[in-house]
Amino acid sequence: MILNKRMKAVKRKKQNLVTHSNPESIISDQFRTIRANIKFTTGESDNLILLFTSPGKNEGKSTAITNLAVSLSQQKEKVLLIDANLRKPAIHHIFKKSESPGLTDILKGDKKFSEAVCSSGVGQLDILTSGSITTNPAEVLGNGLMTALLDKAGKVYDKVLIDSPPILHSTETRVLANQCSGVVLVLRRGKTQIEQAADARRVLELSQADLTGIIMNEK
């Protein structure tokens, strides 16, 4: 299912949170459409855990997930945004937060969940940044502690959104995809090749992940 076929790409960092800074804009309205389409696709269930990925790099994935997270919080939903892209984290930049403590610090046992999660300053949206740098992201995210963390987060929040590395470039995304309620694949018109999109879908199917929908960015 195409969640939104013509979402304009937001190019400059200061515009990344357009759903917060300019909620009446056309882009914000497009994210409201995506929000509604996800609701129609997944039903009325709370405690939804969605993984966002893309076939390759620079396809607008982090921009899409952060704006959707803000849009969901504007509906008075309690939302947690997790940066699981340990190879190239971006969430802390967008929200101007410290990278650590964060996800890796919890998984290594250095911090508790409550110590690492912080408020975004936008509605009921909390964020869990990537955390301290690690040289083995696949091993860190592929253990049982990550499963336990997602289980806990799913009980505390209405929606949990996970920003992950490109599916064709990382093993950990395939592992995480299998643990989530669904996966949203972000593509960019004019950049994502048809073969890449097909390969990404095939990998998700092999991972036994549920493809919730696709967001198509305009170039």
Automatic annotation (TrEMBL):
GO terms for cellular component: plasma membrane. Its EC number is 2.7.10.2. Gene3D superfamilies: P-loop containing nucleotide triphosphate hydrolases. This is non-specific protein-tyrosine kinase. The keyword Secreted does not apply. The keyword Manganese does not apply. Keywords: ATP-binding, Kinase, Nucleotide-binding, Transferase, Tyrosine-protein kinase. NCBIfam families: eps_fam. InterPro entries: AAA_dom, Bact_polysacc_biosynth/exp, P-loop_NTPase, Wzc-like_C. GO terms for molecular function: ATP binding; non-membrane spanning protein tyrosine kinase activity. Residues 60-177 form the AAA domain. The lineage of its organism: Bacteria, Bacillati, Bacillota, Bacilli, Bacillales. Pfam families: AAA_31. PANTHER family: FERRIC ENTEROBACTIN TRANSPORT PROTEIN FEPE, TYROSINE-PROTEIN KINASE. It comes from Lentibacillus persicus. Belongs to the CpsD/CapB family. It comes from the Bacteria. It catalyses: L-tyrosyl-[protein] + ATP = O-phospho-L-tyrosyl-[protein] + ADP + H(+).
